[in-house]
Amino acid sequence: MKKRPFITSMILTSLLLLTGCTDEPKPEDRFADYTKLWNKQNFEGMYDYLSADAKKEISEEQFSERYEKIYKGIEMEDLKVEYKLPEELPKHKDEEKVEVTYSVSMETVAGPVEFKNEATLVKEGKDEKENWYIEWGPNYIFPELEEDEKVSVETYPAVRGEIVDRYERGLAINGTVAQVGIVPEKMGEESAAISQVAKLLNMSVEEIEAELNQSWVQPSYFVPIKKLPQNDAKIAKLISIPGVSITEVTERVYPYGAATAHLIGYVGEASAEDLEKLKGKGYTANDVIGKRGLEQLLEERLRGEAGAKIYIKADNGTEKVIAERKGKEGEFIALTIDAELQQDIYKQYNNEAGTAAAMNPKTGETLALVSSPSFDPNQYVLGMSSAQQKALEENKDKPLLNRFSSTYAPGSTIKALTASVALKNGVDSNKALSIQGLTWKKSNWKDHSITRVANPGIPIDMKNALIYSDNIYFARQALDLGKDKFTSGLKDFGFEDTLPLEYPIKASSIGDISSEGRLADSGYGQGQVQMSAIHLAATYTAFLNEGNVIAPTLIQKDKMEPTIWKKNVITAKQANQLTGMLKQVVTHPKGSAHSLNDLKLNIAGKTGTAEIKASKNSTGTENGWLVAMDTKSSSLLMAWMIEDVKGRGGSHFVVDRMKPVLKKYIQ
C-alpha cells in the first residue's frame, strides 16, 4: 500500500511524456494569450501577465486607467493587436529573457495609427512553477511614450464651406458674432443684474439662472448666455451691467438675412433624429449641419472634415507626433444668384405674401428665387426662444412656407403658352374670333360660362387677345385643341416634369381637365393648372431662344453654357411672332402691362390674375402675376406673384412693385 503513490506518480509521468505535457511554458504562447486580452481591452486580465518589476512601477488600477483614458481620449476604434506564432516554437529552456515582435493598428480621431514593437518576456517563478511574464512599460501603448509623459489630443474643427453669389458676395459665411456671458463673482447685486440681462436679451430670469446653475460653473468662470450680431445695439447696454462680458466667437452668418432665408436655409446642432439619418457618415452630436435650404441640400459638399493631432510633449518641449489628420475645408460654392437683385425684389414685396423668380433667359442662370414673407435665419443660429419659434409657426402669413418651391394657378400668364400650343397645331394667329359681350358659353353648358375683363368691340385675333388678355379667346382655343393636344403642348413646355434645377421645385401640373369647363378654364390659367414661378419664367425663355426652353441652373460651374431643357417646343418663327405680341402687351395703350412702357425699355411681358376660391359661386381672393423680359440684351426675365391683390389693383399691383427693379437692372 505504501508504494501506490510512487506507482501512480510513475504512471502520470509516463502519460505526460506521451502527451508532450511536460514541455515548459513558452513565451510565445504567453504573449499570444496576452494579445487576445489586449484586443478585448481586458486590462485587468492583461495586468496578471506583467512581470514583478513592472507591477512595482504601476498598480492594476493605474494600469487599467491609463489604457482607458488614452484610448478614450484618442477615440480609438477597431483595435487590432497581432502576434503571429512561429510554425515551430523555439526552445527557451536555458533562457531567462525573450523578445517577440508584435504589431498594433487602430483608428483614431487623428486617423489610422499603426506600429510594430518589441515585447520583452522574462521567466519568473510563481506558485512553485515557472512562467513567462511581460516587462511592461508605457512604450507598449505607443513606442514613443515614456514614463511620466502624457498623450495629448489637439482637434481642428471642421471649417464649413461658404456660399456666395455670382459676384462672390457672401450668402452663408463663417463670420463672428458677440457671445454674451456672465462671470458670477463680478455681478454684484445678482438679482438686479440677471433681471437687466433678461430684459435686454428677451429671456426669462429662470432661463438665465438655469445657465448659471449648471454643475460645471465656478464663480470665476465665463458662462455663455446668448449670442448677438456684432452690431447689435443692445451690446453697449449689456457691457455696462456688472458681471456681463462679451467675447467674439466664430459662427455661421447670413448677411442677406430674410431675403435669402428660404433659398440658403440655416445650420443647427445635429439632433438625435439627424444622427440616425446620417448614420455611418461620421457625424457626432457636437456637429453642426444644414437644417434647411441649400445648407441642407449641399450638406455633403459644405460640411468639411475636422482634423486632429495625437502627440506626446517631451520634457524638452518638443512634440512627438503619433498621428495627425489635417482638417479639410468644405467646398466654396458660388451660385448664379445676384444677391442685390434678390434683396431688391424682397424689399419690393415689403412682407406681401408671394414669390418671384428671375433668370438670364439666354444662359439659364437663376438670378433670384424669392419667397415672402420670410424669417431671419441668423436667429436660428444665434438662438431662438420657443416663444419666437411658436410665433413664426402660428403667423397667419406663413413666413416659414417656401413659396418659390410651390405651385399656383398662373392666371393669364399661361395665355402665351396656350397661344404657343395653338400656333404649333396650325392655328392662324390672324384669324379673329367674333365674341359678343363679356361672357360666353357653349350651347350645351348649363352652369358654366367664361367671363372676360373688357369688350374691345372688335373681333379678336391672337395678338389682340394677348393685349386685352381675353379669357374667352384662350378658353375657345383650348376647347378647339381638345384635351389631348392641349395636354401634350403643355407637357412640351415641361409640365408634369421635374425641373432640372439644383433645388427641389414642385412639378407644374395640368390636373384633371376631362370636362369641357375645366379644359376651357385651363386655357386662360384657371382650371386646375398649377405652376411654380421659376418654371413659368423658364417657359418664357422659349420666346427668346428660337423655340427652345432653357434649363434653369443655380450653381456656377467652371464653364457656364446654356442647356436646352425642352427643344423646339415651337418654331423659331413662332417664337419671334409671340415675342412681338408680348411686346405689344407693354407698348399698346390697351395692353394689360402698358404702365411698364413708362420705363422706355425693350420689355415684353404678360400679366395675370388668378382667382382663388372654394367654389364658383363663393367669394375668394386673387393672386396677381407678371412675367416681364428684356428683349434687347435678353439679360433678365422675371416672374412675380403676389397673393391677395383683389381690390388692390389686381395684377397692376404687381406691375407697380416690379417697375423699380426692371428700371435698375435693365438700364
TrEMBL record:
It catalyses: Preferential cleavage: (Ac)2-L-Lys-D-Ala-|-D-Ala. Also transpeptidation of peptidyl-alanyl moieties that are N-acyl substituents of D-alanine. Residues 26-148 form the NTF2-like N-terminal transpeptidase domain. The keyword Membrane applies. It comes from the Bacteria. The keyword Membrane applies. One of its GO terms (cellular component) is plasma membrane. This is serine-type D-Ala-D-Ala carboxypeptidase. It comes from Peribacillus asahii.
